[in-house]
Amino acid sequence: MVSAHTGSIPEIALTGVTKAFRNAAVAVQDVSLTVERGEFVTFLGPSGCGKSTLLKLVSGLSPVSAGKVSVNGMTPENARQLVSFIFQDATLLPWRTVEQNVGLGMDLEHAARSARRDRVAQMLQLVGLSHVATRYPRQLSGGMKMRASIARALVSRPRILLMDEPFAALDEMTRDRLNEELLRLYAEHKWTVLFVTHSVAEAIFLSTRVVILAAHPGRVAHEIAIDLPWPRTAQTRESKAFEEQVTQASRLLRGVHQA
Amino acid sequence: MRRKGILAVNSVVVFACLIGLWQAVVSLNHLQPYILPGPLAVAHALHDRFPSLVNSLLITTEEAAGGLAASIIAGVAAAMLFAQWRWLRQLLYPYTILLQTVPIVAIAPLIINWAGAGIFSVTIVTFIICLAPIIANTTQGLISVDENLLHLFLMYKATPAQVLFRLRLPNALPNLFTGIRISAGISVIGGITGELFAGSTRVGEGGLGYAIIYASNQMETSYLFALVFAATVLGFSFFFIVMFLEWLALHNWHESSLPQLEE
């Protein structure tokens, strides 16, 4: 891409995207959405609305049936080195230690050992896992596994993070704490984030924009800009503005559910 | 620790009682040694014939271990091909079940007919009966990889070789060991069964199976008991060696060992 133009190219653009599966089920239909660089956009919606499918399409793991997805002006396949995917469960390799898991990508690229060691140590420090670097995943709690998964995603210095219900399996306390840590890292690294969740409060807390999807077939129903002040901390959750945004989004989501 | 001690003492006591009972039955009924030898007579035979017993044991060990090792190499290779190409799996997988259901006593004479009497033929017999559990279990492990882990490797642009060696094979390691454990047990049976048909190239010398037939024909029932004892010890040894290797390979990370949760 010509650098002079990058300012005008949206980071992620979906144009009339439809995804139908072989059994003819339509996961998403005619979705158009533009995400600018640095936005934190969360997909919220009932099951069957194609939230996860949208992430798979943006990552190129799954091809579109119709329409177009472009990532920084490229096809999703070509943009893969800009993108890191964080899955619903930590998806760590059980036979590798935490540091070996975090370094997996560099390992597969045959990166120099010293470069890998430094980068991995840096990422483990960032997510607060330095003290368990040599442990195996089964020795970690759910929250620690998820941190390791995030560290692994950050090793490649991604510009775009795709997060598919990453904290769904965690208890509320752990989830809140990881939300706060995620925003601290987001403020530092200025990624563009596409995030999927079932939790309205989590969506409002994290996002600059929330996209509410309707199901059968999956389509965009509402978009809400979240104008809560930054930096957002534990106190943000207690503010009146936060409560109002949650109430408003919940109402819209209920409408989508009943439709 | 104390519980383990009590358990060990109990095991020894039970074993001693069984041996005592055996000797008592033989002595009280004045049974002839060729009908049922007592434990003392068996111990005598074990002592007197020790060199030839060890010789038979080594021959059978060689056949069983050779067949098992060959089946692991061939079985893992076949499973890798099956995992790579679904059509190949669908085409050939039924034959591995056939391999498992064919009675070994029925085909052992055929193999000996083709390959001649001796250690090589018996190793082939062992190889054949060990193969199916290795292929079946390893294939299962290779294809049952978490979809998200495959997606992760795709995102990293991993090569097919990297997916196979860094993801599928380690994932299949616990299944492979399950297969090896099953095959290790039947490899000794395969060796002995093969020897029943293969005989020996030298009169009076051969593996445990051959020696069992020989002792039976000679009415050396005490020695027959000693041979059965040796065969049992061999089967146990194979099993424990495999268990130990499995522990070495898996105890760090696999769920089959106890978890150590810490926050």
Major sheet of chain B, described briefly? none
Question: What structural class should be given to the helix and strand makeup of chain B?
Answer: mainly alpha
Extended strand count of chain A? 9
Report low-confidence residues of chain B grouped into runs of 5 or more: 259-263
Q: What is the helix content of chain B?
A: over 70%
Under the CATH scheme, the architecture of chain A is 3-Layer(aba) Sandwich
Q: What's the order of the H and E elements of chain A?
A: EEEHEEHHHHEHEHEEH
CATH architectural category of chain B:
Orthogonal Bundle
User: Going across the major beta sheet of chain A, what is the strand order?
Assistant: 5-6-7-3-8-9
CATH class of chain A: Alpha Beta
Distance between the termini of chain A: 43 Å
State the separation between the terminal residues of chain B, measured CA to CA. Answer: 28 Å
Question: What is the CATH superfamily classification of chain A?
Answer: P-loop containing nucleotide triphosphate hydrolases
Largest interface: A-B, 26 and 25 residues
Q: What coarse outline of chain A follows from CA principal-axis ratios?
A: globular
Rounded mean pLDDT of chain A is 89
Largest sheet features of chain A: 6 strands, mixed
Task: Give short descriptive properties of this protein.
heterodimer, A: 259 residues, alpha/beta, Rossmann fold, 6-stranded mixed beta sheet, 8 helices, 9 strands, B: 263 residues, mainly alpha, MetI-like fold, 10 helices, 0% strand
Give a structural overview.
The complex is a heterodimer of chains A (259) and B (263). Chain A is an alpha/beta fold. Chain A has helices at 51-59, 98-102, 104-108, 113-126, 142-154, 172-189, 200-206, 240-258, and strands at 12-20, 26-35, 40-44, 66-71, 83-86, 160-164, 192-197, 209-214, 219-225. In chain A, helix 7 crosses helix 8 (240-258). The longest helix of chain A is centred in the C-terminal third of the chain and has 19 residues, at 240-258. Chain B is mainly alpha-helical and 263 residues long. Chain B has a single domain, classed as MetI-like fold. Helix content of chain B is 81%, strand content 0%. Chain B is built from ten helices and no strands. In chain B, helix 3 (50-84) packs antiparallel against helix 4 (86-101) and helix 5 (104-115) crosses helix 8 (160-198). The A-B interface holds A 59, 61, 80, 83-85, 87-89, 91, 93-96, 104-105, 107-109, 136-141, 144 and B 146, 148-149, 151-158, 162, 166-167, 170, 173, 252-255, 259-263.
